[in-house]
Amino acid sequence: MRPIPLILTLGLLSAGPVAAADAQAGKKLHDQHCMQCHDSGVYTREDRRVNSLEALHKQVRRCDASLGLRWFDQDVENVVQYLNQTHYGFE
Question: What global pTM score does this model have?
Fold first, then answer.
């Protein structure tokens, strides 16, 4: 096998599908954008609409679209990770 295709193949295999979520990066995005519309009380109120990890993903996507942020998938994952770690604790 020639070295260039081998190197490219190994590089693609080691890249993985998506990087792990980064809660610190998520906090930064959350504080910069999400807190413009609401405070953290929305996460802890009794009648909150987010009651699963899937619902949390959907809500973050809705907020992203509503604000016209056009976040990358990794940005959404980071915000979800941050919110789940700090407020929700979904498995």
Answer: 0.78
What range does the domain containing 28 cover?
19-88
Residues 45-62: tens digit of each pLDDT = 999 889 999 999 999 999
Domain membership flag for residue 66: yes
Domain count, the chain: 1
Contacts 24+ apart (CB under 8 A), 26-33: 26/75, 26/77, 26/78, 26/79, 26/80, 26/81, 26/82, 26/83, 27/82, 27/86, 29/71, 29/75, 29/78, 29/79, 29/82, 30/79, 30/82, 30/83, 33/63, 33/67, 33/69
**Residue 5 placed within a domain:** no
